[in-house]
Amino acid sequence: MTARLLLISDTHIPGRARSLPAAVRRAADAADLVIHAGDWVAASVLDDLRTHGPVLGVYGNNDGPELRARLPEVAHRVIDGVRFAVVHETGDAKRREARMDLAFPDTDVLVFGHSHIPWDTVTPRGMRLLNPGSPTDRRRQPVHTMMTAVVDDGALRRVELTAL
Known about the structure:
This is Phosphoesterase. The chain is α/β, with parallel strands linked by helices. The protein has helices spanning 22-30, 43-50, 65-70, 96-103; strands at 3-8, 33-36, 55-57, 74-79, 82-87, 109-111, 119-122, 128-131, 145-152, 155-163.
């Protein structure tokens, strides 16, 4: 079974944008699952994304009581045999791979946010770490970003970082 994924984080709506960019909405429509790694800020963003299809999300440090009541701090899902985890913060980039191997021993792919810096590495144990950046708040990055990926035949394939 092939699953098309959209990975986003740190939307910070309405602080950094009034709504999700059109490219994110189109990608959500094309995805089988949207994964959001926190800092939605407004619960309306969660509701909006759910009109496009299933959403797996977590709350971030900028999310208030309403989102914290509706979302976990860490989410897990097995997609076609691939074990995913989603969390907002992973701490400092130094030694991130080793720390995440210890923190998520039963995970194949960890999606995270917080830094707004796109990230795609593999830990010593072989876990893939993915941060899609932000589609609305680029901070010191040159462009806004999101990621897409495909899970097929028990493997993560075609991870692509998209500049918006």
